[in-house]
Amino acid sequence: MHYLLNMGFNSFNDLIDAIIQGDNERVQYILSLGVDINSGRRCGRSALIWAAVEGQLNIVLELLQRGVDVNAESEDGWIALLIAADKGHLDIVNKLIEFGADVNAKDRDGRTALLMASWKGHFQVVRKCVNMGADVNICGKDGWTALQLAVRKSHVDIIRTLVWTAVVGQMRGVSDSSISTGHE
Predict the structure, then answer these.
(1) Other beta carbons less than 10 A from residue 150's beta carbon
(2) CA 93 to chain centre
């Protein structure tokens, strides 16, 4: 691994290269050199976001254990949770939430992890988000709720989950738990 230092080593860029390649050993080595995992960016994305994009659970966990900012935004307002939800990486979604990711965080278009997963049909991710308190009434800037997106894409299991969440919420007397059913 010392060859990195002899070849014009650029710590953050090399870290991202190792993440993209899924090279856990190299990631650990670069991190051991003291790379600042919270301030670097490549293409506007943090190391954690790159690991989520690539579906690298072990690297996500390594970064989380080293204290990476779980809610750090990319230049376009995405956090790792939104990307993991969009890609259907349930194991990564679980870890990010465990380490404090905001389940209701929005990107610049108002999209949340729940909206992403509902649109893409990632049922288990939708269930996790709902179980962790995701607001089922949030609309993106396009005005669509998670239920409306699921209906539009005919994701029946997700529709059932979101409707059930609304019914249970109403039965518990939670005033804001009903799901909007009309396009607003």
Answers:
(1) 27
(2) 6
Model pTM score: 0.85
Instruction: Compute the distance between CA of residue 28 and CA of residue 104 in angstroms, rounded to an integer.
Output: 31
The pLDDT assigned to 111 comes to 96
- Give the pLDDT score at 173: 59
Output the average pLDDT for the chain. 88
Q: Is 151 left (phi over 0), alpha (psi -120 to 50) or beta?
A: alpha
DSSP class of 180: P
- Phi (first) and psi of residue 83, to 5 degrees: -70, -45
- Region for 134 from its dihedrals, namely left if φ exceeds 0, alpha if ψ lies in -120 to 50, beta otherwise: beta
- Please give the structure tokens belonging to residue 41: 């960016």
The residues that bridge with 80 in the sheet, in sequence order, are none
* CA distance readout (Å), 10 to 5, 14, 21, 40: 9, 6, 16, 11
Selection from 75, 79, 116 nearest residue 97 by Cα:
79
- Say if CB 70 and CB 94 are below 8 A apart: no
